[in-house]
Each structure stands twice: as structure tokens, then as C-alpha cells.
Design a protein that fits this description.
Keywords: DNA-binding, Transcription, Transcription regulation
Oligomer: single chain
Pfam families: GntR (PF00392), UTRA (PF07702)
CATH architecture of the largest domain: 3-Layer(aba) Sandwich
Organism: Pantoea coffeiphila
InterPro entries: Bact_HTH_transcr_reg, Chorismate_lyase_/UTRA_dom_sf, Tscrpt_reg_HTH_GntR, UTRA, WH-like_DNA-bd_sf, WH_DNA-bd_sf
Number of helices: 9
Strand order of the largest sheet: 3-4-5-8-7-6
GO molecular function: DNA binding; DNA-binding transcription factor activity
Strand content: 25-35%
């Protein structure tokens, strides 16, 4: 095989799948912009790949600007240069009503798990403590526009169930009425990121299109974290508007 043929040969399917799995890990809630990623040896074990393949994948992502190497300090997710806080926290239902759209949602899953080191740090709980994980597809006039994953300390919502959430319709209303958690506000970041296969399918987005991803911690009036939220927003159906320091999400009817 000639040199030119080697250069134009398409990557193997197994290699592309490995790249996809690595990106899904890096875009998971356990990582944020500016975080250091696991060492090559750990990634090899996590992905069941050879050291050579992992090094090649990391080199590609460095070249593409997803990662950066810092000498002998390791490899890091590229830090977002500008962070704009989005507050106050406002329920999706209320936001859509203000935009003249009819809100609805689909509960993708609801279960109790244990907090990873990152989630524990964000929620000010111990690693391994129970957290309620909720994933919901949010719709405006029947069209999906964002996929939200919430992590709540189980100790703050000890009896919260999927049935209660679906009956109430609004998580924040349920927090206020049942758990007396009111006057919540959020601090978070917004950045463009690649979507995984599930996100593309659920949001009915065009293949390879990026998403607007909001990651934020929701606090109560005593400044205690009550929720870590990851919101993956359809790039053509959601616009984040900032006005006079008060921010809200525009999700126009589509």
C-alpha cells in the first residue's frame, strides 16, 4: 500500500467507536471544562484499549482543541475562556408559558445512585452518599428542545419518587411545597459541546450538530446545594438570553 493510500484510508469502525466512547466519558457530568482527565493507563483500562490507541485518540483531541497538554502535569479539557452565570433558576414550565408555548415532558429515568467524587463535591456531600438521578426530555408544543439530568442529595428529598414528580409536573414546585426548599438560584456555565447518540435521537437534532450545554448548581436560600443540573439544549430551538444581569432561557415554539 502506498503512502498516499495510507493517508486517505478511513479509520476503522472499532477506532471510531472507541473515540465516541472516550468523548462520551469526557462530556459526562463527571467532567467540566478545565478539568484534568484520567491518565493514559486509567483510560486504557476504562475503555479496554491499547496504550497506542489511547495516545492516538488523545493526540487527535489535542489537535482539535478539545484537550490540551500541560507538560508533565497531564492532559486537561480545554477551559472555557468566558463563563456567564445564568440566574435566577426558573422552572422550564414557567419559561415556556412566558414564551407562549405549551410545556410537557417525558421521564427517561429516575433512580437512586451513589455520588461520584465530582458530584459529591458539587453538592457538598460525601462521595458515595445517595443521590436521586432524574433524566427528563422537555418539550415545547410537542417538540423536544432540551434533555435535563438532575442530581439531588437523597437526604434533602428522602421520599421523592418518580410518581410524585410526574404528578406534580414541576420539580421546583415539588421542592417548594413538599420540602420547603424555596427561593432557589443557580450558578453555572454554558458551552457548545458534541452530543452523544442518545441525545441526538431524543432531541431529534441533525447528525453531528452540537448542543448548547448548561451545567449548574442550584442553591437554596441558605446557599446549600440542592441540585446539580446538566441541560443539553437543541441548538436550533433554544436561545439563552441575558438581560440586565437576569437571565432566562428562550425556548420558542417550533
Amino acid at each position: 500500500m502506498s503512502t498516499s493510500e495510507k493517508q486517505t484510508r478511513k479509520p476503522r469502525k472499532s477506532y471510531l467507536e472507541a473515540r465516541k466512547r472516550l468523548l462520551e466519558i469526557l462530556h459526562s457530568p463527571d467532567f467540566n471544562s478545565g478539568d484534568q482527565i484520567p491518565a493514559e493507563r486509567e483510560l486504557c483500562e476504562l475503555l479496554s484499549l491499547s496504550r497506542m490507541t489511547v495516545r492516538k485518540l488523545l493526540a487527535e483531541l489535542v489537535e482539535e482543541g478539545v484537550l490540551e497538554r500541560r507538560g508533565n502535569q497531564g492532559t486537561w479539557l480545554l477551559d472555557t475562556p468566558i463563563e456567564r452565570p445564568l440566574q435566577p433558576a426558573l422552572g422550564i414550565g414557567k419559561i415556556l408559558e412566558l414564551n407562549g408555548a405549551v410545556p410537557s415532558s417525558q421521564l427517561i429515568y429516575f433512580h437512586v445512585s451513589t455520588a461520584s467524587a465530582r458530584i459529591a463535591r458539587l453538592l457538598h456531600i460525601a462521595e458515595g452518599d445517595e443521590v436521586v438521578m432524574i433524566k427528563r426530555l422537555r418539550l415545547a408544543d410537542g417538540q423536544p428542545f432540551c434533555l435535563e439530568t438532575s442530581y439531588l442529595p437523597r437526604a434533602r428529598v428522602v421520599d421523592l419518587s418518580a410518581e410524585m414528580l410526574e404528578e406534580a409536573g414541576s420539580l421546583y414546585r415539588l421542592l417548594a411545597e413538599r420540602y420547603q426548599i424555596q427561593d432557589v438560584y443557580d450558578e453555572g456555565t454554558l458551552r457548545a459541546a458534541a452530543m452523544n447518540e442518545e441525545e441526538h435521537q431524543l432531541l431529534q437534532a441533525k447528525p453531528e450538530s452540537p448542543a448548547l450545554v448548561y451545567r449548574g448548581v442550584i442553591y437554596d436560600r441558605q446557599r446549600r446545594p440542592i441540585e446539580y443540573l446538566v441541560s443539553v439544549n437543541h441548538p436550533q430551538r433554544v436561545a439563552f438570553r441575558i438581560n440586565g444581569g437576569l437571565n432566562e432561557v428562550d425556548a420558542p415554539a417550533v
